[in-house]
């Protein structure tokens, strides 16, 4: 409902976000004005919302996230030790042991998310998205990922990601995943080179003696 949507935006600004001074909220509060969409578009730009006014669901989600972040920032001491009402009487140990127990892998949103992540990281896709996950979540893959490796520190800021998710934390995670993927490709190339050398050693003419610079008898 358009009226409810506009009232919702005004309530968020008045009660939680408070980006404008009270005297500057008049155009946004005038929800029956024909110019309200222009006022809302300006408001989105002023709060640095990355979405367009046509993307209502994304805009609502983003503004709610901003409101929650500001609310928490103003009352960090109050909220930092809070626990959801529904979780107070549950066995947290059991829930932590199975964090994905309620995950529905047949959910279209989950499938779309897996494919979108594959596109972002530019890794090879598969017709069956579960196969993509299995290849990364096998026992061998987990054991390999758990092995500690010594190496030189990497300055992530010096590596260009090539795309922007709109979230600095996700961008950094994507950079790390891409670097790990490149490392795996290099390791594969090294094994391929070693295999080629081994095959060449087997099929080489045994009469050839490189030390003497002679070929044949």
Automatic annotation (TrEMBL):
Alphabetized InterPro entries for the sequence: RTRAF (IPR019265)
Pfam families: RLL
Family that this chain belongs to: Belongs to the RTRAF family.
PANTHER family reported for this sequence: CLE
The protein, known as: RNA transcription, translation and transport factor protein
């Amino acid at each position: 409902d358009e009226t409810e949507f506009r009232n919702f935006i005004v309530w968020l600004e008045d009660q939680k976000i408070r980006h404008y001074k009270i005297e500057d909220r008049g155009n946004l509060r005038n929800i029956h004005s024909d110019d309200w969409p222009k006022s809302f578009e300006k408001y989105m730009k002023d709060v640095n919302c990355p979405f367009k006014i046509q993307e209502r669901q994304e805009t609502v989600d983003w503004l709610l996230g901003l409101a929650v972040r500001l609310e928490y920032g103003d009352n960090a001491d109050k909220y930092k030790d809070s626990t959801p009402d529904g979780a107070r009487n549950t066995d947290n140990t059991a829930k932590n042991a199975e964090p994905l127990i309620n995950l529905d892998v047949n959910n279209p949103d989950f499938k779309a998310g897996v494919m979108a992540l594959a596109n972002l990281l530019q890794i090879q896709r598969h017709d069956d998205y579960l196969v993509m996950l299995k290849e990364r979540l096998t026992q061998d893959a987990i054991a390999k990922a758990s092995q500690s490796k010594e190496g030189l520190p990497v300055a992530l800021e010096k590596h260009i990601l090539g795309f922007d998710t709109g979230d600095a934390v996700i961008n950094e995670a994507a950079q790390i995943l891409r670097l790990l993927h490149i490392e795996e490709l290099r390791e594969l190339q090294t094994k391929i080179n070693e295999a080629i050398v081994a095959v060449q050693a087997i099929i080489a003419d045994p009469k050839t003696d490189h030390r003497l610079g002679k070929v044949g008898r």
